[in-house]
Write a structure and sequence with these properties.
This protein is mainly α and 206 residues long. The protein is built from six helices and no strands.
Length: 206
């Protein structure tokens, strides 16, 4: 189990790094959108390459971040019933989901998408739009994204098995780091609570 937990931590680290990189893809898509708007207004010209580059970057950010999102348990979950079940039952539901649903789905997508990427790379398929971009880079996001998602699913599976064996922490909590705004709000809340406590103490001494 020790070796599997080490493998799980390596996957978590990989998807954490990918998640930090993906935000720059969104920034790049926003910058290209702004440049396209400025060029169109100032020079009265534009190109389909700008538009396609935006959705290329969006596709990469959406698909590449799937594993990162699973790592932080931020996918949409219907917890109306699941949240009311005992913790061990919730863990078993996740184990079944990762092993019997997520993994086969990712394998099917990888099996179907990878040959398409290879074919597009070999043929150099281009966009049908005038001035469009080559197609294989955006299609590559599909197998890469689902590979990262499948690996993270295995990591979560390992963590849940370790928890059931009493060899790992509770894997059901969120890992999302607090933003600067959240930390500021928490600091202000503590300051207000301290001020209220001080005022109550002063009032009690009168």
């Amino acid at each position: 189990m020790h070796a599997l937990m080490k493998f799980s931590r390596a996957i978590d680290w990989l998807n954490a790094q990918v998640g930090r990189f993906v935000i720059w893809l969104i920034f790049a898509a926003t910058a290209i959108s702004a440049i396209n708007a400025i060029v169109r207004k100032v020079f009265d010209t534009s190109s389909n390459a700008y538009l396609e580059a935006q959705w290329y970057l969006y596709a990469w950010s959406f698909l590449a971040a799937a594993g990162f999102t699973l790592l932080h348990r931020e996918h949409v979950r219907i917890d109306v019933l699941n949240s009311r079940l005992p913790k061990r039952v919730q863990v078993w539901i996740d184990i079944v989901g990762f092993a019997l649903f997520l993994t086969p789905l990712c394998l099917v997508v990888l099996w179907l998408s990878f040959p398409v990427v290879v074919q597009m790379y070999e043929t150099g398929e281009m966009s049908g739009n005038p001035g469009g971009l080559i197609r294989w880079p955006v299609w590559l996001a599909l197998p890469v994204g689902f590979l990262l998602l499948m690996l993270q699913g295995w990591s979560e599976l390992i963590k849940r098995i370790a928890f059931l064996r009493g060899e790992g922490p509770d894997p059901m909590g969120r890992l999302t780091d607090k933003s600067a705004e959240a930390e500021l709000m928490e600091a202000l809340r503590r300051q207000n609570e301290a001020g209220d406590a001080g005022a109550a103490g002063a009032a009690s001494q009168r």
